Every structure is written in C-alpha cells, then in structure tokens.
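2024-03-11 09:14:02 INFO worker-7 job=invfold-0412 stage=load source=structure_tokens
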C-alpha cells in the first residue's frame, strides 16, 4: 500500500505555542457559543 502523503508544515504552523492554541480555542468556543445563540434566536422567530 502506498503511504499517504503528509503535508509539510510551514515554520509558522510548527511554531504555534500552546498558549496561542489555548487562546485560539477560547475564542473559537466563544464564537461557537455566539453562533448557537444567534441560531436559537432565529429558530424562536421561525417557530412563532
């Protein structure tokens, strides 16, 4: 079987610090929460 080709990471991708990742995860969670809240509001309007 042929080995899958692994995309070479750029230097920037390798140099992401764990603290950057944590803040990124927090921002992502906040954004997802906002989107869910907005969707809930839209569904409430649609349900009327």
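2024-03-11 09:14:09 INFO worker-7 stage=emit residues=48
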């Amino acid at each position: 079987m042929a080995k899958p080709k692994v995309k070479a990471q750029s230097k920037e991708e390798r140099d992401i610090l764990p603290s950057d990742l944590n803040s990124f995860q927090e921002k992502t969670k906040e954004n997802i929460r906002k989107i869910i809240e907005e969707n809930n509001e839209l569904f409430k309007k649609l349900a009327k």
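2024-03-11 09:14:09 INFO worker-7 stage=report msg="The two ends are 56 Å apart (CA to CA)."
2024-03-11 09:14:10 INFO worker-7 job finished
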